[in-house]
Amino acid sequence: MGDRPYVKNEKKGDIKSILPYLPKVDQDLPNSNYIIVNNDIADMPSTNLINSYDNIKEHVNNILKYIDPTIDPCKDFYKYTCGNWIRYHQIPNDHDSYNLFDKLNDQLRDSIYDILTTEINSVKSDDSIVKTTELARILFNSCIDMNTINDRKSQPLLEFLKKLNGFPLLDKNWNENEFNLEEILIQLSLYDMENIFHFAVDTDLENTKKFIIYILNPSLGLDNEGDYLESDNNLHLNAYRTYIIDILKILNANEYEVENVADEIIDLEIKLANVTDIKELTLIELYKSETIGDLMKNYPKFNWKYYLNKSFNSNFNDDTKIGFFTGPKLKLIYDIVINTDKRIMANYLNWIAIDRLVKYLDDEFKVPIDNLSKAISGSESDTQNRGLSCATTTNIRLGTAVSAIYIRKYFDENAKAEVFKIGQEIKNIFRENLYDSEWLDDETRHLAEIKVNKTGLDLGFPNFLLNETALNKYYKDLELQNGKYFENILNIRKFTVARDFRKLDKNYVAEDEWSVNPTVVNAYFENPKNRIIMPASFLQPPIYNKNFPKSMNYGAIGAFIGHELTHGFDSDGRSFDKDGNIGNWWTNKSLEFFMEKEQCFVDQYDKFLLYNHSLNGHLTRRENIADNGGLQLSFKVYRKWLNSMNEEEKQNEILPGLEFLAPEQLFFLSFAQSWCDFIRPEAVETKLADVHPPGAFRVLGTLQNFDEFAKAFQCPLNSPMNPSKKCKLW
Predict the structure, then answer these.
(1) How far apart are the first and last CA of the chain?
(2) How buried is 138 (Cβ within 10 angstroms: 0-12 exposed, 13-18 middle, 19+ buried)?
(3) Domain with CATH 3.40.390.10 in the chain
(4) What is the pLDDT of residues 90-107, one digit of tens each?
(5) pLDDT in tens, 282-299
(6) Which residues contact 672 (CB under 8 A, 6 or more apart)?
(7) Would the pLDDT of 38 be above 60?
(8) Does the annotation count 382 as an active-site position?
(9) Where does 155-360 sit in CATH, by number?
């Protein structure tokens, strides 16, 4: 799950952290104690409702169909729980894997499509949110209008490239004496295209009451920096080279020059990748700040003051603070940029724009895009239904507008109260755990308790989405046009940057806005705000349903809340205090114990294999710590609740048809079935380069460390799911 502040990722269009990570296994038939609930429980009513259904057997069968009853859960609980997931779910062509979150995203996409094709057309001109709905309608309709998009071909892109002061590959009259690096980067940044010195405005990590400009790490054409660091025969890099050549040929580049230009682009990105692969470092190791004056002095061949002043239409002085997440590598990045030939750099910066925008063009570009996607992950773009694809794009680009309509139709406001109550209970248990953690000294424990007391939990959506005046004000400066899909995307990008710029105004008052949209199926911990965010589209079955037994809700939504809370005290979160300010508030003694316990998780997860490729336990350590902490916190809350019930009340925890399944077992099943997954072999390297481990290891690693799981399923000591050595932090 996510755990950082976010901005838009322009290549994928998803939510990405401005911080640098960002933020996706046999024997005889077991006895009845091991009957497992499957992953697909969205239609399963609760005990007090199920008797009103005539098709009880159908629902129970639906629960059971994903389990593999030939697997002993004490040997492999993930394979037992999710062993038949693949039999009932094909990986869609446009996916590199398929798991519960993909399934929920598909359902969300269908709901948004319904909104954009039916609900939105019923909005009357006198409705208070007509401006918001009209923008979403225009973008969606311009996206599905493939006739117009195909008629316009690449012309919109070529017009945009004129803003970049020349493209040597396409312009025979290009003059290197007219090349101005700062001017080109200004244009790319104003249209929110990640580049070599891309910037964003976000909370000052050293004073979270203020906002500052951040210079971000270079964004490369391939998401996995490791692809650039392998041998010359790397399949992904070769596919990327072919993609560059094919795209540039469609733009009528000289075929005798295009291969050389592609090689120069890749050579430059290889150099950058060698100094920007920083995912394994902690934020406190990466974060630094300098003044503009310092930048001008230390890196004098790039005019930082001009770049920032013109970009922001401002007059920053030498004392203006700038943040970085490059750690000690800014000088290395700067040296690469400054020492690169001007022609190569000009071609590369034009390529950055092309790569970010080509998917908004006509069908001629689809083949090279698909070929690259197939080579990297085995997936391709979704051509079966342009409408559904455009629904996704509209949600990504106008998420606030779409969310305002979505929550009015689909979100159950009553869900917030119960989930918030679960969150408070989990915070209470975490506080108790602090006093059970003998490795913490009193000073660190006291500060940790203050932090958890202040940790917020925001659920559903920000309140301003129900305020029509505020909502229309949000979009007042955005204009879109029918039949101008490419330009609409550009206008939204520029609008997004302009809204971020407002945060630097000394009179700016932080609005009730989130860094993610309610129509995102994920949950997040925001370190600078010391809060958990759980969007509306996340609070749905099987993650949460008010009619589910408590065991299922605590096993799913409870574990997720605990996961996010634990992020506030993981390898990164421990460096942020109660107010979200970065800094070390730990004593040396407690920090030494923390590092020792963290290493236990690293060693454990290093041993997991996916298609004979090892998991990187150090890269995934934050998520592994959060998974373990979250599950154990939620189980303690659930056990406390269960022990307070009388026998009659406990019967409500029994599902008809699964009466032999104990409540504690159902809790662990609910947790495990949240992570059922199937990954294409071609996507293995990409998945293992993610800070989030594959679903199988989230189940296996977490449950192997928990004695209560072994007790619930009577797993013998030293069986695969009950090893004698266990890792525990929180």
Answers:
(1) 18
(2) buried
(3) 6-95+413-462+514-712
(4) 898 889 999 999 999 999
(5) 888 889 999 999 999 999
(6) 36, 77, 78, 81, 82, 699, 703
(7) no
(8) no
(9) 1.10.1380.10
Q: Which of 726, 450, 439, 725 is nearest to 594 (CA)?
A: 439
**Considering only CA atoms, which of 536, 696, 544, 605 is closest in space to residue 99?**
696
* Enclosing H/E stretch for 371: helix 366-377
Among 18-22, 231-235, 276-280, 413-417, which stretch is predicted with the lowest mean pLDDT? 18-22
3-state helix, strand, coil in the chain (%, to 5): 55, 10, 35
Highest CATH level, class, for 6-95+413-462+514-712: alpha beta
User: Under DSSP, is residue 502 helix (H, G, I), strand (E, B) or coil?
Assistant: helix
**Which position among 227, 526, 577, 627 bears the catalytic label?**
627
Exposure class string for 346-359: b at 16+ Cβ within 10 A, else e = bbbbbbbbbbbbbb
**Are 311 and 190 within 8 A, CB to CB?**
yes
In DSSP notation, 399-460 reads HHHHHHHHHHHH--TTHHHHHHHHHHHHHHHHHHHHHH-TTS-HHHHHHHHHHHHH-EEEEE
Marked catalytic residue, from 76, 355, 564, 677: 564
Length of the chain: 730
Is 564 in the active site? yes
Q: Count other Cβ atoms within 10 Å, centred on residue 382.
A: 15
Q: Give me the pLDDT at residue 302, please.
A: 97
Q: Where in the chain is the domain with CATH 1.10.1380.10?
A: 155-360
Lowest mean pLDDT segment, chosen from 18-32, 404-418, 506-520, 684-698: 18-32
The separation between CA 411 and the C-alpha centre of its own chain, rounded to angstroms, equals: 22
Quote the pLDDT of residue 131: 79
- pLDDT reading at 545 higher than 90: no
- Give the chain's mean pLDDT: 88
